[in-house]
Structure formats: structure tokens, C-alpha cells
Amino acid sequence: MRALVGLFVALLYEFLRDKTAIFFTFVFPVLFTVIFGVLFTSFDKPTTFDVGIIDNDQSESSTAAIEALRLNPVLNVNETEAVMEMEALRSDDRAAVIEFMKGYETALRMNTKVTIRVFYEPRNQDARQIVIPAVTQSIDTADRMQTGSMPRIIVNPIATETVDLDPIDFFGPGIMAFSIMQIGVFGSINLVVRREKGILKRLGATTIGQATVLGSEVILRTFIASVQLVLQLAVLVFVFGLTILNVGPALALLLFGLLVFIGIGLVASSFAKTEEAVLPIVQSISLPMFLLSGVFFPIDIFPPVLQVISNALPLTFLSDAARQLLIEGPPRFDMWVNLTVLSAWLLVTWVVSIRLFKWE
Known about the structure:
The chain contains 15 helices and five strands. Helices cover 65% and strands 9% of the residues. Strand 4 (114-120), helix 6 and strand 5 form a beta-alpha-beta unit. With 360 residues, it is an alpha/beta fold. The model has no long low-confidence stretch (mean pLDDT 77). The protein folds into two domains: 2-41 and 166-356, no CATH class; 49-159, 3-Layer(aba) Sandwich (abc type-2 transporter like fold). The two termini are 24 Å apart. Helix 2 packs antiparallel against helix 7. It has a five-stranded mixed sheet, sandwiched between helices.
């Protein structure tokens, strides 16, 4: 244990003496988060919003109300089967779904109040601030024109359990997962440098074993990652107003993901003898994950071939799990699938890296 702590302290001093490493580890990710956060929060809002219609009454009155909704320039009205409309709401293809209950026309003829239900996602600010008022205005106007009296129709907004992510909601957890990948994979470069300079060879000649060397590396990377995650969380919460949930479990998940990427980095370091040789290897590992793991954009917008590749990358599962925990976003995979895949990557990479570990 003393050797492990001593080696960790030595590695930490080595890291702190390298001002370039400190900048790209702590300052650069924060700047990266700020820059992309500003870009993602500056996207223009849509001028029209897709809403779905569920007409259970199929009457002249409900048809007239639907036509009034179609006349509203803010609303793009879609009418299919009820199941399809609710599925579209869950998959973020609808800002809201408007339901006309059976007996709608009968209630109006009896001059009694009747309720129209509007399903929406509570996190969707556009639904609350634009769509629901637009629906209410259209229905109220149509009702007043028909009766010339106080409105009989009550618009009842109902928050659903689906989640419609704003760009910053999607981006925030993704960039944290991406930063974890960077720390884990690119940390292997230092190991190659120590091997190239003969430091590992000298350590191997002492009583310090492989477990101590690798353990100290894990402790150092965990320390660095913890500081970086706290900085990124602070920026996302206090600068961009992101509401963060389940902070403890999310940080534990991200640090578990760090172990996965440290293992991948160790495997990469086993195939390189020099610093110049390991750089292209780690870049070829990180670049596909940067582009295809759904860190910045949803994987569903990719062509099918690229989606197959995306679904094989560990960062895909880490970023999906991070969104589920941090913002309770809609899952691409069940949480148990994310954890199982990450565990499989962890087991395979660490077994391979231990077998391929070289002192010189």
C-alpha cells in the first residue's frame, strides 16, 4: 500500500509539473463545454410545432374543433391512430397530443362543460409556453364563435413521462462522458513515455509489481477525472441552467466508465513502443467515438450502417446511461444493457491489457 501511495504521489507531481497537461485536462474541457453549450443553446426555435390528434368522438363538433386547430399557424396538425400518436410523442416527434373524449359533441349540445386533454412532456418548454396556449386559444375562439357565450370547453394539459431534450440537455451528459473517454484513452500515452524512457524497466527491477503500477495509474486518472467532472457540472448548472438529477449515481457511473477507457488505453499502449507510435493509435480509437457515439447528435439521424457501428462503441452506452441518470432522458438502451456492455468491455480490455503489459 505504501508503494502504491508513493507511486501515485510521484505521478501526481509529474502531472502537476506539466502545465500543458493541466490546461488540456482541466481548462480545455471547460472551455469546450462553454463554447458548445453556447452553440447548442443558440439554435433557433421552430416556427411551427407538430401536434397529434386523437379523435375518440368522431363527430361534427370534434371535426370543427380540429379544423380550428389547423387554422392556427403555430400548429402543424397530424391525425393518425391513437397508439401511433402517443408513440410519436414518446419519440419526440410531437410537441403535444390533443385528445377529444367520446361524448364531446353530446356534452356541447347539452351546454355542459367538456374537457379536451393535451398530453405533453413537462420538460418541453415550447409545449408549455407556446403549444398549449395556442391550442387553448384556437379552441376558445372556435367555441365562442359557435355559442357567443362563455366557453364550455376546458383544455386540460397532462404532463407525460416522456422527455423531449433541449440541445443543451442532450449535450451536457454527452460531453462529460466524452471527457471521461479522453482521460482514459489518452492517459496511456504517459505509460508509453515511461516505458520509452526506461522508467518502467527500473520499477520492474524493484519489489513494485504490475498491480501497483496499474493501480497508481487508475488512482491518478480517477482523481483527475473527478476534478474535471465537478468543473463541468458547475459550468452546466450555473452557466447554462441545466437541471441535474441523481448526481451521486451518475458520477459513480462515469468513473466506472473511466475504468473501461483506461483498459482500452492500456491495450493501445501495449502495441506502441514510442510516443509517436501511440498517438495515431489513440486518435484512431477516440475519433470514431467522438463522431459516432451520440455525444453531440442523436444516433438516430445517422445512416443505418453508421448506427450499427455506433451501437458497438462503449462511449455510446456510457453517454446513454449518463443521460438517463443526470437528466432522466429517454433511453436508447435499457440501463441493464448499458451496464452489461460496459462491464464486458471492462473485463475484456483489462484481461488483455494485463496479459500484454510490458516493462520495457
